[in-house]
């Protein structure tokens, strides 16, 4: 049964009840008047013995009944008109928001997830419309996230196929060269074997990265969160990797370092830094590049964070690609690479997910004097 029909039936019942009550009220008043006259003027009904006197009494009674009926009809007409006006207004105030909600639901059904209801009246339906908009916003966020995940999976499969095929093709070619005797000297054979070993190591690295990425993506990756200072992180990084990367043509330099106490998984934070150092070493355009590591702290709405900056002097990236550097298998065009040398594109994506599990973030900025600045944010320890 529709709301309009229910209101109509309710109004009919209301009118019947009012009419019955009014008639009962009139009958009671009439009875009271007659009984009052009888009790206060006992001789009145004795005097009214003649036919003329009785007719006069009936005339008075009929006049009272007629006056009461007119008053009743006037009041009933007033009630009916007032009720119709109020009911129509009530129906309009109920049906209009319901129609708006119905239109909104149809828009969401038709995949218009950006549709929002505009309702300004301050009544019960305002909360309903606000809740609808919140639902639509959350649904849009969920759908967009799911679409992004699906695109990432497709890119993952495509990128994995490409990055596995490249070293496999090289291994196959060099094995065929060994089989056919192309490497006919010990020096060539050693060179072929070294290449095969290098490509096998590349394959192993990609597979290990894929395994780590899948565990992170499935949120089945344990973290050993501890407190550590940013000074210890940077100093440990310098002590462990400065000499190694010096041989790769990348000089690690420490800049201004603040001594903030942060929470992080010490083992995996080193993995994050190594991924960044690998990219800087791989994409430097000079024979010897530099990367400056510094730190500071910043206040955010979510709380105070420590920031560690890793600024290299490489070619940088186009500004429009900064937000995509941490996507799965994303690679900037060959102008970023050295002689076309490219990685798997998984390192920075893994770094972003590792930091997310630690409650931190990572972003990329262009250096003021060139190069690429990777900024790692870590939450400060409680009370620090």
Here the CATH topology of the largest domain equals Heat Shock Protein 90
3D shape: elongated
Helix- and strand-based class? Answer: alpha+beta
Low-confidence stretches: 47-51, 334-340
State the name of the first-level CATH class of the largest domain. Answer: Alpha Beta
GO molecular function: ATP binding; phosphorelay sensor kinase activity
Domain HAMP: 92-144
Transmembrane segments: 12-33, 64-86
Organism: Leadbettera azotonutricia (strain ATCC BAA-888 / DSM 13862 / ZAS-9) (Treponema azotonutricium)
Tell me about this structure:
It is found in: Cell membrane. Residues 92-144 form the HAMP domain. The chain is α+β, with helices and mostly antiparallel strands. It has three domains: 3-109; 153-217, Signal transduction histidine kinase, dimerisation/phosphotransfer (DHp) domain (Helix Hairpins, Orthogonal Bundle), CATH 1.10.287.130; 225-379, Histidine kinase-like ATPase, C-terminal domain (Heat Shock Protein 90). Helix content is 61%, strand content 13%. It has helices spanning 3-40, 44-47, 51-109, 124-179, 186-217, 230-247, 266-282, 347-357; strands at residues 225-229, 250-254, 261-265, 289-300, 303-312, 361-366, 372-379. The strands form two sheets. A five-stranded mixed beta sheet has the order 2-4-5-7-6. The protein has a two-stranded antiparallel ribbon with strand order 1-3. A hairpin with a 5-residue loop joins strand 6 (361-366) and strand 7. Helix 3 runs parallel beside helix 4 (124-179) and helix 5 packs parallel to helix 8. The model is unreliable at 47-51 and 334-340 (pLDDT under 50).
């Amino acid at each position: 049964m529709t709301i309009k029909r229910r209101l109509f039936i309710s109004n009919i019942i209301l009118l019947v009840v009012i009419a019955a009550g009014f008639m009962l009220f009139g009958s009671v008043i009439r009875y009271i008047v007659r009984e009052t006259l009888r009790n206060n003027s006992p001789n009145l009904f004795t005097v009214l013995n003649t036919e003329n006197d009785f007719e006069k009494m009936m005339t008075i009674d009929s006049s009272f009944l007629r006056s009461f009926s007119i008053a009743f009809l006037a009041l009933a007409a007033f009630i009916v008109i007032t009720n119709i006006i109020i009911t129509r207004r009530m129906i309009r105030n109920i049906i209009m928001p319901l129609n708006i909600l119905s239109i909104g639901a149809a828009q969401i059904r038709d995949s218009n997830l950006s549709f929002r209801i505009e309702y300004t009246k301050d009544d019960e339906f305002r909360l309903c419309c606000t809740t609808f908009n919140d639902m639509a916003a959350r649904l849009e966020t969920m759908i967009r996230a799911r679409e992004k995940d699906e695109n990432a999976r497709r890119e993952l499969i495509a990128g994995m196929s490409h990055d596995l095929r490249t070293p496999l093709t090289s291994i196959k070619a060099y094995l065929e060269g060994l089989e056919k005797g192309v490497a006919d000297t010990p020096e060539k054979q050693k060179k072929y074997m070294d290449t095969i070993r290098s490509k096998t190591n590349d394959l192993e690295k990609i597979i290990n990265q894929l395994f780590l990425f899948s565990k992170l993506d499935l949120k089945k990756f344990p973290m050993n969160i501890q407190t550590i200072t940013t000074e210890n992180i940077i100093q440990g990084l310098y002590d462990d990797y400065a000499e190694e990367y010096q041989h790769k043509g990348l000089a690690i330099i420490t800049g201004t370092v603040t001594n903030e106490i942060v929470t992080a998984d010490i083992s995996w934070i080193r993995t994050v830094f190594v991924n960044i150092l690998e990219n800087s070493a791989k994409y430097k355009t000079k024979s010897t590049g530099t990367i400056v590591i510094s730190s500071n702290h910043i206040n955010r709405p979510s709380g105070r964070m420590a920031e560690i900056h890793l600024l290299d002097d490489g070619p940088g990236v186009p500004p429009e690609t900064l937000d995509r550097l941490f996507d799965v298998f994303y690679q900037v065009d060959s102008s970023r690479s050295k002689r076309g040398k490219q990685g798997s594109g998984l390192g920075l994506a893994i770094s972003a997910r590792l930091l997310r599990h630690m409650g931190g973030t990572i972003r990329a900025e262009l250096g003021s004097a060139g190069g690429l600045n990777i900024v790692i944010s870590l939450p400060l320890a409680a009370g620090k």
